[in-house]
Amino acid sequence: MNIDILLGLQWGDEGKGKIVDALSPGYDVIARFQGGPNAGHSIEFNNIKHVLHLIPSGIFHPGKLNIIGNGVVLDPAVFKKEVEELRLPVSEITKRLIISKKAHLILPGHRMLDAAYEVSKGNLKIGSTLKGIGPAYTDKAGRNGLRVGDILRKDFQDLYQEHLKNHLLILRNYNFKYNLSDYESGWFEGIEMLKKFSLVNSEYLLNDLLSEKKRILAEGAQGTMLDVDFGSYPFVTSSNTISAGTCTGLGISPKQTGEIFGIFKAYCTRVGSGPFPTELNDETGEKLRKTGCEFGATTGRPRRCGWLDLPALKYAIMINGVTKLFMTKADVLTGFNSVKVCIAYNINGKETFEIPFDHDAPLQPVYLDFPGWNENISALRNYSELPGTLKKFIGFIEEQTGIPITMVSVGPDRKETILR
Known about the structure:
alpha/beta; 13 helices; globular
C-alpha cells in the first residue's frame, strides 16, 4: 500500500483542512509532513469552526491515527492551546495523535528572532507570521536545534538555557525590545503537555503501517508557491511544501508514494508580501475577499485576492506530479458577471507560460473571460446539477492542465463537497 499526498498548489489557504477532514474516513492514518503553527487548517461541521495549526486534520475522526512527522517544527505553547481547544478529552486525543521525536521545537528565542529579523527588513518585509518558523528551520539546518525527543532528557533545561543564551546574543545586534516572559509564557506548560503523548521514531512506525497495508494520507501545509526552493523566493516559507517534502518530512521512500491530490481555489489568494500576478486591488478583489471570508486563519490578516493563475497552477502540477485536482471555493464566484482566468504572462511584449525568475519583472497577465453564474450552488451535491457555465470553467481547467478535477467544494462545511 502506498501513501497518498494532499497539498496546496497556490500560496496556501486552499482549504486543505476541510478536504483532509472529508477524506479521512477512507484512511487509517493522517500524517503532517512539514511546516508549523504558521499553518491554519480550517474545518467546519455541526455549525462549529475549528482551526488547526499543528495537529493533522483527521483528528476529529474516531479510530484514525494522526501523526506529526519529523519535518514539522512544533511550538509547545501553541500545541497545548490547540489540544485544549479541540473540545475532546485529552485522554482521547492521546489515543489519536502520535508525535515524532525528530520534529524540531520552536523555542521562545526563535519567535523573538523572527520578530527582530522582520522589523530589520523595513520595506522589504516578507510578511512573516512571526511564529518563529524561519529561525527554527535555520537552527535545524545549522545543526543547532532542539527536537521533541530532547524533552525527555534529564539535562533538557540546561540545553534550553544554552540555546536561549545563543539567541539572546544574536538579538543584541538588533534594535528590538522584548520581554522574555511574554515569549516564554505557556511554553514550559506546553512541554509538560507534550510529555502526555506518545513520542516515537515515527519513520519506523509509518513504514511498519505501510507494510501492514494501512491507508495513509500525508497532509501538507502552506502551498507550492511558498516552497523554499520553487516558490516566489524570498517571499516563501522555510520548508519544502511540495510532494517531495513528504519523503523527507515523514521518512518514507519515493517509491511508496501513490496518488498526489492537488488543491486549488477557483481564484487565487495570498497573505504577506511577494509577487501576485493576478492580484485585484479594486472592487472585484474586495468582493472576493468579503464573499470568501479571506482572512488568515493563523494571523487574521486580510488576504490579497485575484483571478485564477493558470501558468502558476500548471507549474505546481508539474513540480508535484499531481494525479487529481480538487477545486475549492467555487461558491465564492457565484454572482460575478464574468470570471477571468490568467492563461499567460506578457513580459516586455512577449507572451510566456513560465514563471519568471525575477519577481520584479514587468509582468502583465493575459486573461480569458468566462461567463459567470448566479445560482446558489452550496446545497448541490451532484456534479450534474452545477450551472453549465461553471462546468465549462471546470472543463477548461481540466483541458489546460491535463488533470481531472475529481472534487469540487461548494461551501465551508464538510458536507458541502461534490465528488465526481
